[in-house]
Amino acid sequence: MDEMTGIQALERQAPDKPMRPGKRERREFEYIRHGTQTLIASFDVAQGRVVEATVGARRTEVDYLNHVQQLLATDPKAIKWHLVMDCLNTHQSASLVRLVAQTEGLDVDLGLKGQSGILQSQQTRSDFLRDPSHKIVFHFTPKHCSWLNQIELWFGILVRKLLRRGNFVSQAQLKTRILEFVAYFNRTMAKPFRWTYEGKALKQ
């Protein structure tokens, strides 16, 4: 799981000039900027497909919580969830702690954010969310190691296949095209990524 922020809805001021013998396709460099959108996406490593994608204007704690709730709703009968993400503060929020506690049926005092208990600090919340005994287990990648999260590979595909050469006349069109691409990818291209790194220690 991760967010892709600041996706620009750029409309080219002039149409592209198509390829012809001896000439490459040429694109207008001037554009009209229609604002940005944020994509929050969850990637199923085993199947190689995007399970849930949310496109909106922001990536607040509430937005991320809503995305996690929508993800969990895709398979209500799942016995266990392992969610991999980076260490962003919204990924270790009080609202996620409350969600996990509610899912686990825990009748405990979570404390007060910034003052006491599980909610006291980002570290105490992170420790709670990582608990392997829970049905929903969070795994946080180390700092500067977001490449360990396979959603980053999929974001690269999105950029190359859609965003880099896209022409979007509005934020609404950008949102629609992203969600259409997710559906197209899942239907035609989805397959597990094959890691080539074998985990060997680096030689000194």
Task: Give your account of this protein's structure.
This protein is α+β, with helices and mostly antiparallel strands and 204 residues long. It has a domain at 2-59 and 149-188. The chain has five helices and five strands; from the N terminus they run βββαβααβαα. The chain has helices at residues 61-73, 94-104, 122-129, 151-163, 171-188; strands spanning 2-12, 31-44, 49-56, 81-85, 136-140. The strands form two sheets. The protein has a three-stranded antiparallel beta sheet with strand order 1-2-3, sandwiched between helices.
Radius of gyration: 20 Å
The description of the largest β-sheet is: 3 strands, antiparallel
Low-confidence region ranges = none
Classify the oligomer.
single chain
Helix-strand topology string = EEEHEHHEHH
Provide mean pLDDT, rounded. 92
Describe the strand arrangement of the main beta sheet, using strand numbers: 1-2-3
Q: Please, how many helices? A: 5
Shape: elongated
Number of strands: 5
What is the terminal-to-terminal distance? 33 Å
What is the helix fraction of residues, given as a range? Answer: 25-40%
Overall structural class, as computed from helix and strand content, comes to: alpha+beta
Name the beta content range. 15-25%
Region (Disordered): 1-24
InterPro entries: RNaseH_sf, Tc1-like_DDE_dom
GO molecular function, one term: nucleic acid binding
Protein name: IS630 family transposase
